[in-house]
Design brief:
Blueprint lengths: L6 H14 L11 H40 L4 H11 L5 H10 L1 H15 L2
Length: 119
């Protein structure tokens, strides 16, 4: 009887990698060796992307808040400083949504921040 050398484990391992490489361009989707490298690289890039997404959204929220602050004659930094001095604790995501959805409430926050800073 012939001796079987871990054929099933090897096949399953390769199948798992090739399944994850499905849709990759050229040999990267069909050749095990290049697919393994491509999948590993894709995981690294995905991890980096999840971290970068947080930075990107924070930049977007700050840009939105800054634009509305500028139209009301106050800089972003003075606005945030005024909120801190007034004791208003609210994150940038909520401020951005407030600026988009309820402009009058945001203007009230701006006036409060101006008063706290002393403008």
């Amino acid at each position: 009887m012939p001796r079987a050398v871990d054929g099933r484990k090897r096949k399953n391992r390769r199948k798992k990698i090739l399944k994850r490489a499905k849709g990759f361009w050229g040999r990267r989707g069909t050749n095990f060796k290049t697919a393994k490298e491509a999948v590993t690289r894709a995981y690294v890039d995905a991890f980096t992307g999840r971290k970068g997404k947080k930075r990107d959204f924070r930049r977007l929220w700050i840009a939105r808040i800054s634009a509305i602050c500028r139209s009301n004659e106050i800089s972003y930094s003075r606005f945030i400083n005024g909120l801190k001095k007034a004791g208003i604790i609210i994150n940038r995501k909520a401020l951005s949504n407030l600026a988009i959805e309820d402009n009058s409430a945001f203007v009230t926050l701006i006036n409060t921040a101006k008063a706290a800073v002393g403008e």
